[in-house]
Amino acid sequence: MKRFCLELAGDFACFTRPEMKVERVSYDVMTPSAARACFEAILWKPAIRWHIRKIEVLKPIRWINLRRNEVAGIISVRNVELAMHNGNGILGLHIEDERQQRAGLFLRDVAYRVHADMEFFHERDRSSHATKFHEMFERRARRGQCINQPYLGCREFAAQFRLVSAAEKGPPPIAESRDLGFMLHDLNFAVPHDPSPRFFRAQLEHGVVHVPPWNSEEVRA
C-alpha cells in the first residue's frame, strides 16, 4: 500500500447521521466513507481500494441551520423497465407534487487533510502493477482532474481538493479534543443489494481522528 494525502475544503458540508430519519443533521467531522468517496471521485478502478487512515480538522467546527426543498419521490424501476421494453414511457416527476421541506443542521467553512492508503489487487488486473495507479492518481490530483466532482457529504456541497506531498508543511489541525460518539465507518457491501452500515467510536484528539482498520475489533456492525 502507498499513502496519499488530500486537502479538502468547502463552504458547507453535511455528513448525515443515519439515526436521523427526517432532518439532515451532520456529524461534527467528516466520516471515513465520505472521505473515501472523495478519493474515488479522483480515481476509481476495480483493481484498487482506498482505506482512510486519518482525518485532520483544519478549521474550527462551525454550524448553520438551513431549511431547503427536496424531492421526496423517485422514478420507479418498473416504469424504467417498461420504457426500455416499449421504447417510450413517462419517466418524469412533477416537482410540485413531490416537493417537501426539510430542516438541516450543516457544517460551514470546513477544511480537512485526509490520509488514505491505496491497496492494489493484482489478481483483478494482472496486466498492471501498483505503480501505474499510484502515478495515475498523483497526476490526476495535481491537475485537478476527477471522474466526478468530490463533495462533502451531499452532492450540492462541492469540495475543493489538492494533493499534499509528504514533505509539505500545511496548517496544523485545530487544538480541540472531544468524544464524537459512534460514527459511520463505511458500508459493508458483502450483500450488494442490501449493504449494512458499520460504526466505530470516534475520538477527536487535538484536531485529528484516527480511523481504525475495517477488520479491527473497534469497527462494529
Keywords:
single chain, 221 residues, alpha+beta, Alpha-Beta Plaits, nine-stranded mixed sheet, 4 helices, 9 strands, 18% helix, globular
Architecture overview:
The chain is of the alpha+beta class and 221 residues long. The chain has a single domain (2-69, 103-210), classed as Alpha-Beta Plaits (2-Layer Sandwich), CATH 3.30.70.2660. The chain contains 4 helices and 9 strands, in the order E-E-H-E-E-H-H-E-H-E-E-E-E. It is globular. The mean pLDDT is 91.
List the helices and strands and how they pair.
Elements: E1 2-13, E2 24-25, H1 32-42, E3 48-57, E4 63-71, H2 77-86, H3 95-98, E5 99-120, H4 130-143, E6 160-163, E7 178-188, E8 196-205, E9 208-210
Parallel strand pairs: 2-5
Antiparallel strand pairs: 1-5, 1-6, 3-5, 3-9, 4-5, 7-8, 8-9
Summary, kept brief:
The protein has 221 residues and is α+β, with helices and mostly antiparallel strands. The protein is 18% helix and 38% strand. The longest helix is centred in the middle third of the chain and has 14 residues, at 130-143.
